[in-house]
Predict the 3D structure of the following.
Amino acid sequence: MTGTRPKILVVDDEPPLRELVMVTLGDAFACDEAGDGDTALAQMREARYDLVMLDVMLPGTSGTDVLREMREDELLKDVPVIVMSAWQSPQDVASALEAGADRFLAKPFRIDELGSMVRGLVGRR
Amino acid sequence: MRRLSLVGRVVVFASTVAIVVVVIVAGALIAIVSLRHAQARESRAKDVTTATLRVENIAFDLESSLRGYTLTGSPRFLALFGDARKAMPAALRHLKTLVRDDREQLRRVRATDGFLHDYVTDYAEPVIQIRQFSPATARSSVASEEDKRRARDIRGTLGKILAVEQTRSARRAAQARDVARTAIVVGIIALALSAALVLLFGAWVARAVAAPVRRTSAAAAQVAAGDFDVRVEERGAGEVGALVGAFNSMTRALEHSREELLEQNERLRESEEHKRDLISMVSHEIRTPLASVCGFTSLLLEREFEREEERRYLEIIDQQARRLAGIAGDFLDVQLLEGGGLKLDRAPFDLVELTREQAHLFFSHSSHALELDVPDIPLVVNGDRDRIAQVIGNLLSNAIKYSPAGAEVRVVLEPEDGGARLTVIDEGMGIPPDDRGRVFEKFYRGSDAASAIGGTGLGLAVAREIVTSHGGEIGVESETSRGSTFTVRLPVNFS
């Protein structure tokens, strides 16, 4: 995989937020986007992603359900996931981590925080 | 007839028992007095008999001593005669005293007195004197028919007196026995009657007073233990019945108060929960646009971008900042609605133009398909243009929010009798039947909270308030999983 950019899927129902994440991560990563849970799962099954940025509150299948489905899927269970949410009570964080998230990113987030969290997870692989 | 009070009943019962006891005692006293009277009369008859027998003995002594002296001439008999002669007046006096109230017997005693007196003076004393001169004459005299006649007269009258007294004595004894028997019978019946009355009274007290009081006391213990469902059967005399009734009322009132308290508590709990949800929801609603504002601002400050990109990001910041202002505006509107302070700035405006404008605003950057069906000519209404724009905007943003990307949203505006009708039809998830009646309540989000769809629950509440302030109405029809249709009716002119 040397020479190719790590692939990231950004899942959020808010187009400005998807754009923010993609602009922040910049040219170092190849980003795809999805606006709802079902589209995101379909995309993950077509292309292999190195990281998924997942919003919790999605129309249709929620982010938490997407995460659970990923962790039960042989192909997707090891893909690192950063859960992003504006819901950030200790229970919300705990339920995201229990569902299998690697990191929890509270909205609004600092752009350098997002960058270092992503690089940390992708670089480890 | 009015039922007597408990105190009244106790008084009536106690008085009845007291009267019965007094009657018994009086009856017993009367019986005792009658018995004593009968005994006294019987005793007097016996005294008369004794006194009569004493006179009879004296008469016998007079006769036998006269006969002895006449036959023997012995002075001993003469002395005996003298004794009897002396005892006679006292015995007769005594007998007269005893029978003084009985005219018949007194007459007989007087007759006896006369016979004896005649016997002694007219017969016996002359015979004694004759004996001293002629014993033979005297002897023939005592054996004569006159002697026998006089003796028969005396004995006959005395016998009559005795017979009368004996008959009376027997009759009085029988009377005394009758009175005694009657007294005993009356006593037994009265005792039985008063015993029965006392028992009856006791039983009544037990049934009408003690039992309800015991039941009430047991119920009070249950109430003290927290069981307010308990009720006592409302039975019991007068004040006891009233006590039981009052107890039941008290328990009902307590139960009612407790239920009210529980309901109040539940409302408080719900309100507290609601408040927590609201705070959580508001902070979420604010954080989402804030994330874009903060993020793009940081990017613009820290990195270099092409002029075009820079402008695009500034537009996003502007859009999201407006969204934040909109949320703040919704809250302000709710505050105005609650305080009745919603002010309308009325002026005629074209509803067709406003609808086109709002549709463009919401659908130009959306993945949803818009089908706009508006009249070709202006449809002028008299109202607050900004507020009506807010209503249309809320309906359009809901249609987008609650239907999947790419779905069609149909917006129809048409003139209607004396007004205009705006219909927004989506192909979204629809509203569950339980939520349909409440979607226009402020902060009501129904199943949205569970289905992870954001929102303050204020948009439709504000929309309804604005529409009704314009004299119009707003309604919804929906089918779960098929979509919803919101209809707004506005009059052209409203006063």
In short: The mean pLDDT of chain B is 86. Strands of chain B lie at 347-350, 369-373, 380-383, 408-416, 419-426, 473-479, 483-491. Chain B touches chain A through 29 residues (CB under 8 Å).
